[in-house]
Write a structure and sequence with these properties.
Shape: globular
Helix content: 55-70%
Strand content: under 5%
Distance between the termini: 20 Å
Order of helices and strands: EEEHHHHHHHHHHHHHHHHHHEE
Largest sheet: 5 strands, mixed
């Protein structure tokens, strides 16, 4: 190890153990004793409210509220349609608007989390989202409704924050199950909206019952923003919060990764361009042609600016090799982005359209359709943790391959659902598909924390953004085709990602390392 190249000073190793993680201070021919904090990984504790378990419960509930706010419109679309006289295209536009802003928001939030810590960023996000929620509830025109729905997409970025928080508090051997519980129980917020809000709107009564139901979710978010701020910390006491060396773009470690990074950024801007096109005179006519052209120019300028910024941060990889100890493979990030685009992206799209799909296909009431559709996202409560646990137990790559194959089959079966089916048969197929979709979410994020510790927020942000790219892409497809074709398109995308996982994803093995400016090295076990 003493022969490793370095950019600052010779590395020396001092070993300590934090959550089962080996800490090293440089690399030398001898190992100096030095324990910062001893905490051997024990059995996973769930029914507790202390230590890391307390952080897990507080954080998944923050995620639950962010998703409750984000999807509080979906089960109430029928009532909104009556209030505003919305057309089918206007409703589908609201669904796309809801996931659009989350694309850049997750990238930005990922950077902020890595730089400032999850405690402050999560509290701030819930605080801002509460007031956006109030704005949506009091909207008196479709234009205001659409604007607030677009801005509420920012609430969907909350997911990224907790990924970094849970990563700081749990060891690698428990990463899958901990992230799965966080993601699964938190993601239940969308199902919670479908379960609770229609009945709450009926309880409030009147034509404005849906407004009070939506406003109540904002009140919860506002209160909990203070609870989370005063009840959590970014790391266990005595642990180091590792931050990126430079902010503004993801750090990469080879010339090939540099160009792959540029390619992987294109869909993020393309999805926003598609949204602008949907709002153009050629489609819904909500924006004038000059405004749409300006949006296209801004998106192109932003991509060019980001490319320049990426080079400013990573141009050194073209001048001399990055030390082996500091490298990671960006292809891991790229494959996981695509996998999450299909798993969570399809979930976003399906959760958004499923209540109305059941309502129209089987002539059900708004409450019954919401309850049935809530099953799809509701299984996150169990299957996302299960996907993480399976990944921990049986291998990251193998688990993701099997799950992606099951997901493709599930959407193929859903493409056959029509009015000739019985409701129980349709629900059975929805459950089958949802099992693999939600398990896939957990399996993807069982790998993401094991790529590069100090970049976890940004990597999670990019993967999360691709989830929203998938949501925009699939909902855009839905705006042009019948639901059965929509489900087939998702199934086809799953097959493509299955091939990518098979041939390009590497099983995480050994250790990942972090090097601080003073030469301190952290070797983190990932297998």
């Amino acid at each position: 190890m003493s022969s490793l190249p370095c950019t600052r000073q010779p590395y020396k190793i001092t070993v300590a153990r934090v959550h089962g993680i080996v800490l090293a201070e440089g690399i030398s021919s001898h190992i100096q004793p030095g324990i910062q904090r001893t905490m051997q990984a024990t059995g996973f504790k769930l029914f507790s409210f202390s230590g890391e378990t307390k952080i897990l419960h507080l954080t998944w509930f923050a995620f639950f509220l962010s998703f409750l706010v984000w999807f509080n419109h979906a089960p109430l679309l029928g009532a909104m349609r009556e209030t505003f006289g919305l057309s089918d295209q206007q409703i589908k536009t609201l669904l796309i608007l809801n996931v659009a802003l989350t694309i850049p928001a997750r990238i930005i939030i990922g950077m902020l989390v890595d730089a400032f810590g999850p405690r402050r960023i999560y509290s701030g996000l819930l605080f801002v989202s509460a007031f956006l929620c109030f704005g949506f509830a009091i909207a008196d025109s479709y234009e205001q409704l659409a604007l607030m729905r677009f801005l509420l997409g920012f609430a969907g970025a909350g997911f990224v924050i907790g990924i970094r928080m849970i990563t700081e508090w749990y060891p690698a051997k428990q990463a899958g199950i901990a992230q799965g519980i966080y993601g699964g129980w938190g993601n239940f917020g969308s199902a919670g909206a479908a379960l609770i809000l229609p009945s709450l709107a009926v309880a409030f009564g009147g034509d404005d019952g849906w407004r009070y139901a939506i406003g109540s979710t904002g009140v919860l978010a506002l209160i909990y923003s203070a609870v989370y701020f005063f009840s959590t910390s970014d790391t266990p006491k005595g642990s180091t919060y590792f931050k990126p060396k430079r902010n503004g773009a993801l750090e990469i470690t080879s010339p090939g990764d540099f160009f792959l990074y540029l390619v992987m950024n294109i869909p993020l801007y393309a999805a926003l361009a598609v949204l602008a096109w949907k709002l153009s005179p050629a489609n819904l006519g909500m924006l004038s042609e000059p405004v749409v052209d300006i949006i296209y120019a801004i998106l192109l300028s932003l991509y060019i600016f980001q490319t320049i910024r990426i080079y400013q941060i990573n141009g050194h990889v073209f001048k001399k090799p990055v030390p082996e100890i500091e490298r990671y493979k960006f292809k891991q990030v790229a494959v996981l982005d695509l996998a999450y685009m299909v798993t969570f992206g399809s979930e976003l799209a399906v959760v958004s359209m499923l209540p109305l799909f059941f309502q129209d296909t089987f002539d059900l009431s708004i409450v019954k359709a919401g309850l049935i559709a809530s099953v799809f996202a509701g299984l996150n409560l169990v299957m996302r943790p299960a996907g993480g646990w399976i990944s921990d137990k049986f291998g990251r790559k193998r688990s993701l391959v099997i799950i992606m194959a099951g997901l493709a089959v599930g959407y193929l079966l859903m493409s056959y659902i029509d009015a000739g089916w019985s409701v129980p048969a349709a629900v059975a197929v929805v459950i089958f598909c949802s099992i693999f979709v939600n398990a896939g979410n957990g399996a993807v994020f069982a790998v993401i924390p094991l790529v590069k510790r100090r970049l976890t927020g940004q990597i999670a942000g990019m993967a999360g953004a691709f989830g929203n790219v998938g949501g925009v892409a699939f909902l855009t497809v839905l705006s042009f085709v019948a639901p059965n074709v929509f489900f087939l398109v998702i199934g086809g995308a799953a097959v493509v990602v299955l091939v990518a996982v098979l041939f390009f994803l590497d099983e995480p093995e050994g250790h990942m390392t972090e090097v601080l400016p003073d030469g301190t090295v952290q070797m983190i076990k990932v297998s």
